[in-house]
Write a sequence for this structure.
């Protein structure tokens, strides 16, 4: 079948084929070394990712979810504490707060960027608030300067969920430079993806780094069987780290290609009913997702699917309306911007492996859908 007319939402096979000799030999070297846990590759990757994201320390862990949970745990967040966060994100952002026995307190999003509305945060602060947990959704950073100012003024921790934003910058400042800790994910489809699960905590605070290092190995320090605190079993393994180090060399080029793809969509979709993504001033977007809005989102998605184009809805139900978090007591109407976004958003394929023809085909099918709707 002509590849132009089959457009996947991600193409990990093409990514692997392009790097096959490098990845295969990196994996073979680890297999031959016999060292699979916390070796040289993990340490080097930690240094390399920390450097490229503007932090002093990196601590590799088993997933992006664990990177969030260990960050919060290292800061002592637990029962009785409130953490201010966004309802329009992947479930892990809220899940880690709840798992630690703390309470998520939601603030609505800015409808243009889908990131937390920094102007609404101060109203949600109570004497129990301990931390802010914003998300850099779809690959652009939430307003770090405003978040940091609020955190400083109210004595709160700032933890960034940057799972989707490796390589992003704001006014030239990289993603992990501001805040107490920043969590990244190496889930396979993220902009820098492993061949399995993985994540990393980034911080420039030596104490926080030390605590996360302790927590990832059962709370041990100063020898494997001496436990300072009850911890976790959450490590990034050597094979994943070796693969990630190969891919990290291509990250900038890949992110640039995503931006190019996004620009192309913007031109081709001008004048349609599609609401295009908005980049806040000063942001360098990494387009983990290219997310449009459309009044007839479900019909458009079905139409594109019929024509071989895979799309996705991130996210179809805000977290405050999820069954799992009903106990938090929120109801429909509490966060209208998040609720409306959930009804209208659609992410189009934007991955670096797309061809120009594929992007033109997707845009042409969006146009044709609209033409066929008009009576
Ligand atoms: C992917 C993701 C996570 C979780 O990362 P995993 O590696 O899948 O555990 C957390 N938050 C956001 C916003 C994500 O997109």
């Amino acid at each position: 079948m002509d590849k132009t007319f089959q457009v996947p939402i991600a193409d990990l096979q093409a990514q692997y084929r392009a790097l096959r000799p490098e990845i295969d030999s990196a994996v073979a070297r680890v297999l031959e070394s016999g060292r699979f846990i916390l070796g040289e590759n993990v340490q080097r990757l930690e240094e390399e990712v920390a450097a490229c994201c503007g932090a002093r320390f990196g601590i590799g862990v088993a997933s992006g979810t664990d990177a969030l949970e260990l960050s919060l745990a290292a800061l002592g967040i637990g029962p009785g504490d409130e953490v201010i966060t966004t309802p329009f994100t992947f479930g892990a952002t809220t899940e880690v707060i709840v798992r630690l026995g703390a309470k998520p307190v939601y603030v609505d999003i800015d409808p243009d960027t889908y990131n937390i509305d920094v102007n609404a945060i101060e109203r949600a602060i109570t004497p129990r608030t301990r931390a802010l947990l914003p998300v850099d959704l779809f690959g652009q950073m939430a307003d770090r300067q405003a978040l940091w100012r609020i955190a400083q003024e109210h004595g709160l921790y700032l933890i960034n969920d940057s799972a989707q934003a490796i390589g992003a910058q704001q006014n030239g400042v990289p993603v992990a430079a501001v805040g107490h800790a920043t969590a990244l994910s190496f889930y396979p489809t993220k902009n820098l993806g492993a061949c399995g699960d993985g994540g990393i905590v980034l911080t420039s605070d030596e104490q926080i780094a030390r605590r996360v290092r302790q927590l990832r190995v059962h709370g041990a320090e100063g020898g494997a069987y001496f436990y300072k605190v009850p911890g976790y079993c959450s490590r990034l393994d050597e094979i994943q780290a070796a693969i990630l180090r190969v891919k990290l060399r291509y990250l900038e080029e890949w992110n640039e290609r995503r931006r190019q793809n996004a620009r192309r969509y913007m031109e081709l979709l001008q004048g349609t009913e599609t609401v295009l993504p908005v980049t806040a001033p000063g942001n360098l977007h990494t387009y983990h997702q290219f997310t449009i809005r459309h009044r007839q989102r479900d019909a458009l998605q079905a139409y594109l699917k019929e024509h071989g184009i895979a799309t996705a809805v991130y996210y179809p139900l805000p977290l405050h309306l999820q069954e799992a978090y009903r106990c938090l007591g929120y109801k429909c109407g509490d966060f209208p911007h998040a609720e409306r976004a959930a009804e209208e958003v659609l992410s189009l394929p934007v991955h670096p492996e797309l061809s120009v023809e594929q992007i033109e085909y997707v845009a042409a099918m969006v146009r044709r859908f609209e033409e066929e709707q008009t009576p």
